[in-house]
Prior knowledge:
The structure holds two protein chains of two kinds. Chain A has helices spanning 11-22, 25-28, 44-65, 67-72, 74-103, 112-134, 139-154, 166-195. Chain A is mostly helical. Chain A has a single domain, classed as Cytochrome Bc1 Complex, Chain C (Up-down Bundle), CATH 1.20.810. Residues 213-242 of chain A have low confidence and may be disordered. By secondary structure, chain B is an alpha+beta fold. In chain B, strands 1-2 form a two-stranded antiparallel ribbon. Chain B has a domain at 19-49. In chain B, a hairpin with a 2-residue loop joins strand 1 (20-23) and strand 2 (26-29). Chain B has two helices and two strands; from the N terminus they run H-E-E-H. Classes of the chains: A mainly alpha, B alpha+beta. The A-B interface holds A 38-41, 43-44, 74, 77, 88, 92, 95-96, 99-100, 219-221 and B 2-3, 35, 38-39, 42-43, 45-47, 49, 51, 53-56.
Amino acid sequence: MSPRSGDERMWTARLRNKAVAGFPPERLLPDRQPAYVASWIYVFGVATLAALVVVLVTGAVLAIEGPQWWHVSTAGRFVNSLHLWSVELFFFTMVIHLWGKFLMAAWRGRRAMTWVTGAIAFLGSIGTAFTGYAIQSNFDSQWITTQAKDGLNSVGIGAFFNVLDYGQMLLFHVILLPFVLGLLVVWHVLLVRRHGVVPPFADIEPSKEADTSTAEPTTPLAAEEPATEEPAAEPAPTEVMT
Amino acid sequence: MTGPTKYLSGVVPMDPPGTFLHWGVIQISVANLIVIVLMIAVFVAALVLPFPGRKK
Lengths: 242, 56
């Protein structure tokens, strides 16, 4: 999708060209994966995303209906429980994803920013979950916030927000933190799509560790191109089919 | 306690306070310990179980 002559003067054309060069459609929505992805350990990233979708949908329903509904009605308590247990599943799968990626050294092959955005999203998720516990509007949230304010004050960050301020915690939980977390997750996923899924150590010769484009698929499940030294380079035509 | 919670409470006691384990300065609830053990078990299973459709 190259611009016609003169279009480069327009910021929209420049932005479009940059976006298409960095994230070509076949990379954004691939129909093939590298052979090494045929392992359960690669499932936990997308499982985390699936849990996050349930968290967001149930959270939206809770926001629409309000505390009276989720405390008293049967349907409200059910959705409230769905919200809680999808968060539990979100953290469960996210931590296993983190363990797997840490032990794979998933920052290899110019994937440092993918690792960093994932790590910050993990920390942001803890804050988002904490503010969720703080706004349950029950004795549990009262206990949690009164204990937490002492801990937060003791480390010197209690001056920036007040966990006993219900309105502030509510806005943190339903607007601010989900927005920041959403941006981080989208950025993280785009980086995974751009650089490819990190290959296992066995698929890389030590001398070529920085350039993982030579990783060969080992099973016929394959074939998105793994990351190259230049991320926006053409895909390596080495792959097999699904 | 109403609905499904009533039946679940027959299997898992939900009213008493949680049980905590202590090792020196380390303190953890049994519930959290079970979740951590489950996570480790799932992690190990993900490494060793064959993935459907993968050919040797």
